[in-house]
Input
Amino acid sequence: MAERRKGIRGLLLVALLMLGFALKGELIAPPSPPATAASGEFDTGRAIARLQRILGDERPHPVDSAADDAVRSRLIAELRAIGLQPQVHEAVDCSGFPKTRVVSCSRVRNVVATIPGRTPGRHLLLDAHYDSTPTGPGAGDDGLGVATLLEVGSILKAAPPQRPVTLLFNEGEEFGLNGSAAFMRTDPLAREVDSLINIDARGVTGPALMFETSEPNRAALSIYARAARRPFANSLSTDFSRLIPNSTDVVEFKPAHWTLLNFAILGNETRYHSPGDTIAALDRASLYHVGSEVMALTRAMAATADPKANSGHSVFTDIAGRAFIRLPLTVAGALLSLLLIAGFVLGWRDKALGKPLLLAVGMTIAGIGASAFVTFLATLVRAGDFWRAYPLVTYLAVYAVLVCGMTLVWARWGVERGRMRASVWLLTLIVGAALSLALPGATIFFMLAPAMALTGIAISHRSPRAGTALLLLAAMVQFVMFAETLALIEMLLIDGPLWAVAAFAALAALPFISEVEHARLRPALALLAVAALGLWTAALLLPRSSAERPASFSIDYFRDADHGTASWGIASKQAALPASYPGEWHKGVLPFNGRTRWISEAPVVDTPVPTAKLISNDAVGAGRRIRIALSAGGGNAVTLRFARTAKLLAVGLPAAPERLPGEGEPAKAMLRCSGRSCEGFVIEALLADRAPIEAELFSYRFTLPAEGAKLQAGRPANAIPQYSPDETVTVKRVSF
Output
């Protein structure tokens, strides 16, 4: 009977573990808005109504377009309706992305409104951008921010803050952060600012994630910890945001060393930069969470006279949005070191440094390796992002294989449970210490639960029940902390690799698996194998798209004006085209973009032909300075891409070109211009030598020629353009 109970315990444990993975999304669920907002609090219904009026018919409204003019006019009307006096600051800007060889130019018109404070002082800046991509209406990105700023502004107008708060609705963020760059370079108000809250979005659902702070971060975190009502933030995500290309306005603001907090929502990226980014799709709970958090933090930051007084760096995390913990990095590092030493001491005491530690490592490697291998096989069976409509099913399949692999190793080579406990938590601390060397913000994830676990191990000899209870509690705390991070990673990794969640998931599962006697795990293994098989079968058979989570399917017409050829291109994220789709297709890459597409021959029709006229060519030392007038030839945007051999030092506005790194991405340096002002737009390029240079000119028109109607009609159900609209691209080669 006792042996049978052990088998049932194993079944129950793996079932609960998989249930935990299935329900982890609830850990990051934003709070629901109240039916009626209290006076002075964020009113979601009122914010949505304003956004509906501003976006009107929800057409795309990219920078410097007639559609964006209309959005701006309606935005100004809303600001005046709440009693503010907005100003429009117009500028032409060319900005480079950090560590890249791309410069983006556009004419921007920033809308600025200031709410005076009860006393004079430096301004708190609230920032959002009102332009969208050419692909969609931008209700989430960044209508979310626009609606939030308007509602916060209306509340502050009725109850003025301690010091001035300025609302900046900038234009041109989507194309190259031009609005925020222009504000910093040309608006005198920028010199009056000392703190910032920025709002952006990479989806239409999810919590208000505070994913970036000023550096050092202790001043910003002090305010956040005091004022946030439902905090969702951790220092691992802020460290990670510094490592990946970051294209929010904070890139332009951060060099000013303001105290700042950067917010975004990340859920359902399938609608991001697409026609699906609509007001109907924007989650009201997400808008409420962003708005209520920004409202509370605005009040706190506006009441802080000197936000930089509290300097230093801290590590931090929320726990299920219900608690927020932070520690100075030096203290956290010292505590992690002490825990690691204690882990080795207890491991030596319990004879866990030999086979048990190797077994813990083997379980982890087996689980991660098995999940990565099966995921790889699945991508061979079904190409493209087949998990797009139902990502939870596929991620659960990954977790089932992971736990199955770990359990199999434990069942085959398991040791006495007391020895294994010490090795499991020692391995957790070793991984945490190693990860913290690269990402110091990770330190906070490897302190609370390991401290509880080591205490349980230390007392387990004298009080086995108390020790076991404390160890199980530690395992639950670690699972909650790691599972919340897994839910955020799943949101980010919409394009994969899916198995990237496996390392964190293994550390979340390891303490639970090792708490079950290894000798009676056959029923649990059978259950896991069946679950893994069933979940992967479902993942490979379910539709890859749905009405809520549409597939990406952008159609391009590409014409080479020099060679007299043309092609159709379809970007579907490697998904196969429907069998009935018209045309003969093969995979390839078109010259204007590195994205892999389905390509087919197309008829040659008239399209906008770009031009570049050399205006001046002056010697500068061993090199030269040239000025060029660009034209999109009737298109909506134009790109000048220089040959790899061009020794380009800088490119941009005359007398103020942007310096470029000598090497980097992309290999071919480029300048892009978007909007009506690109017709006749004059740029300057500084070259290191006087050799002739070759370049390619691309004109973009955000629609297809009439011949593309048949392809659009054949687009699969629940599929929409994403990241780029159905567009016409024409290339012409030039030399200077």
The longest helix spans residues 464-492.
